[in-house]
Amino acid sequence: MTQWTLADLARLCGAECEGDGTRVVDGPASLREAGPSHVSFYSDKRYRPDLESTRAAGVLVPRGTRLEREGGPVLLVCADSNAAFTRVVSAFVPPPCVPIAGVHASAVVDPTARIAASASIGPLCSIAAGCEIGEGAHLVAGVHLGQGARVGADSVLHPGVVLYAECSVGARCILHSGAIVGADGFGFEPTREGWKKIPQVGTALIEDEVEIGANVTIDRGRFGATRIGRGTKIDNLVHVAHNVVVGEGVLLIAQTGIAGSARIESRAIVAGQVGIAGHATIGAGARIGAQAGVFGDVPPGEDWAGYPARPRRESLRSLAEVQRLPKLVERVRALEERLHRIEEDRAE
């Protein structure tokens, strides 16, 4: 078990230790769940009651924070307690297990596949003809690579990952369990006999330093490529349809669905459960709020939200008006009743 003194953690993250820096902690925890052997952090006024009642040995706090009670935790004072806590948590992460280079006896590898000497192919992996696996790549277990698939250097594919034929993953990528790259795009034409499948003959290309969450599906292009740009991070349960192009450094958060041929430009952030219509473009640096429905283009750098999505302030004003509707209906009914009484009096 890794242990640190609070003074050492303060030096690690650039904080000032106010209190007994010799106290020893063995891990991080939330303010509510922390015990006397934990270090925690505070950055939001909503959690002030938790700060006052926490049992943590030490708490990272923004400058100017003071406790109202005596005998509380040691304060590790810094400019950005959230960022500092990230460094503290990293100090308790155990060193990663270094995979053993080579091919496990239970793996099935076509003789034409090219596997770097330092790569690690785990149990029950299946490597088809013409595949290429780079130096230091690690296929943990039960990974399938279709014909001609490629995995770059130092990439990690967790159990159950599937790369269909001719798809590629760049260097230093992480694909979590159940991620599927290169399944057919959803394309069908109506005929008298029923739905006729449209051939999907493109590919899917994942550039360097991309992380793909569990059970993400990235379809191959109908023709050409579905592309995920360098440094993009994709949360669990995201669907990227055929011929979508995602730029560099994009965040796609859980349960987002992106329809065919849409474009997400670099550094955009798409929050959870967002739906993006086919052929729409999300401009560079734009931010889309959770559960938004995007039916058209979003300009670069703008914040959009709502259903249908619109500029965030406009969406909030619209939502506020909707919340006023019940009272407005009551006023209309009252006016209708008043008008009715006036008409009755005139009729008499």
Portion of residues in beta strands equals 25-35%
- Number of H- or I-type helical stretches: 4
Label the structural class: alpha/beta
CATH architecture of the largest domain: 3 Solenoid
- C-alpha end-to-end distance: 91 Å
Number of domains: 3
Helix content: 10-25%
Low-confidence stretches: none
Global morphology: flat
**Using DSSP, what is the number of strands?**
40
For this structure, what is the CATH homologous superfamily of the largest domain? Answer: Hexapeptide repeat proteins
**Cα-atom radius of gyration:** 28 Å
Mean pLDDT: 95
CATH class of the largest domain: Mainly Beta
CATH topology of the largest domain: UDP N-Acetylglucosamine Acyltransferase, domain 1
Biggest sheet, in brief?
Answer: 12 strands, mixed
Across the major sheet, the strand order is 8-11-14-17-20-25-28-31-34-37-39-40
General description of the model:
With 348 residues, this protein is an alpha/beta fold. The chain has three domains: 4-91, MurE/MurF, N-terminal domain (Udp-n-acetylmuramoylalanyl-d-glutamate--2,6- Diaminopimelate Ligase, Chain: A, domain 1, 3-Layer(aba) Sandwich); 103-310, 3 Solenoid (UDP N-Acetylglucosamine Acyltransferase, domain 1); 318-348. The strands form six sheets. A twelve-stranded mixed β-sheet has the order 8-11-14-17-20-25-28-31-34-37-39-40, covered by helices on one side. It has a ten-stranded parallel β-sheet with strand order 9-12-15-18-21-26-29-32-35-38, with no helix packed on it. Strands 10-13-16-19-24-27-30-33-36 form a nine-stranded parallel β-sheet, with no helix packed on it. A hairpin with a 4-residue loop joins strand 39 (303-305) and strand 40 (310-311). It starts with a strand and ends with a helix. The model has no long low-confidence stretch (mean pLDDT 95).
